[in-house]
Amino acid sequence: MDLINALTQQYMKPELPEMNVGDTVRVTVRVKEGNRVRNQAFEGIIIAKKHGGINQTITVRRVSYNVGCEKVFPVHSPTIVSVEILRRGKVRRAKLYYLRDRVGKKAKVKERI
């Protein structure tokens, strides 16, 4: 097990902020289109965190034009440029899947001070 941890440790990103479920984040992803490379931001609420170590993923949900969109981001992937925390959320659950059924003000998460 120590050998696996030693090998995966070099590929993990040390500069990631402390992210929790309920936080509003802006994830910047490197997108390749043909021979061009550009950065694209995806902003939303973290509704789930899964796995750990090099396999850690976050599920980010946002609503645009009244359509919910969720993306799963591998946190330590080389295509992830940066993760920026915009708001800290105050929640009492590990998974916020109930936000899928809510619309408008009911879908808000209180801010942690």
CATH architecture: Roll
Name the CATH class. Answer: Mainly Beta
The biggest beta sheet reads:
5 strands, antiparallel
Write the element-wise H/E pattern from the N-terminal end onward: HEEEEE
Spatial gap, N to C terminus: 39 Å
List the defining traits of the structure above.
43% strand, 5 strands, single chain, mainly beta, five-stranded antiparallel beta sheet, 113 residues, SH3 type barrels
Write a brief structural summary.
This protein has 113 residues and is mainly β. Helix content is 7%, strand content 43%.
Q: What would your notes on this structure say?
A:
The chain has one helix at residues 2-9, and strands at 24-33, 36-50, 57-64, 67-74, 80-87. With 113 residues, the chain is mainly beta. It has one domain (2-103): SH3 type barrels, CATH 2.30.30. Strand 1 and strand 2 form a beta hairpin.
